[in-house]
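Figure caption, in words: inputs first, then the predicted bound structure.
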Amino acid sequence: MHVLSGIQPTGRFHWGNYFGAIRQYIRLQDEAEDAFYFIANLHALTTVRNPAELRQLTYDAAVDLLALGLNPDKATLFIQSDVPEVSELCWLLMTGTPMGLLERCHAYKDKKARGLAADAGLFAYPVLQAADILAYDADTVPVGEDQVQHIEVCRDLAASFNHHFGPTFVLPKAKLLDTSARVPGTDGEKMSKSYNNTLEVFEDPKVLRKKIMRIVTDSRPVEEPKEPETDHLFQLYSLFADDAQREAMAAKYRRGGFGYAEVKKELADMAEQYFAEARRRRKEIEGRPEYVRQVLGDGAAKARRKAKEVLRRAQQACGVKL
Ligand code: TYM
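Bound structure (tryptophanyl-5'AMP present):
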């Protein structure tokens, strides 16, 4: 198994990022033949337009990933823009990308539907993402549900390049977790920075507790039985609960006679406990910027070696290399 995934430094990581994607990165680093994980700063540039902020968020993302258990001895961690070969590969793919395919992609489509001006970077975003994946011969891409469309685009582009120029690229598959491919936010919609409904992994515990207490719930009376399956507070609770705890909470929902505030308090306690060790590690790593830079430098060198090899293969296939 050859694993690759990327994550944008557009804000601090939230539970959706962790339970949908990062937790898979950590698990797969033990199973994979190779695992490449990168911080997608070129993608983030389509939204973060303040250089100091982008630099800080990129650094924070590296520290967060290391604190959450990404192990540089097992996985290659790097910054997307440190591998310029990918941008070149992106151009090779772009020349064969139908406009209609990109017009159907949701990030661009949603922005247009809201009447906002989109730039070429946002439009071409999925092609850069395809290059990210293909540059490492990855066959497995751990992501949340919202990225499935992009992985499909990547497969389409790779297959059409292979068809036209001969076998060049490996066709990748998205890898999702059934229990947390779409983590809901505090309002029940998908948790997302752009919906302002996030709960951050490394948020100050007091602030986080307040946010949890404000999770939107319905106003049915305490005694009324409730359905756990469709309740986003229950889904959030389930992220941290073991089977027995989940069963007990589901039974409580069905019985009725409890208040949502009780569940929220329990959720806040569990979340604090769950990330306590990562929080401690984060403090320690934060104070060692030279270590973080070393990890990212080594990662970039290793990633470039691989991307160079794949780029050369693609250049030869399409005739831009004599
Ligand atoms: P990004 O930065 O938006 O999200 C990073 C990862 O977190 C997952 N995720 C979620 N999973 C479950 N529930 C949620 N509410 C939730 N919100 C986010 C995302 O699915 C993703 O796996 N385009 C990508 C970054 C990227 C990339 C790549 C990914 C660039 N190149 C190559 C894979 C392969 C993105 O914007 O993810």
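The first strand starts at residue 2 and ends at 7.
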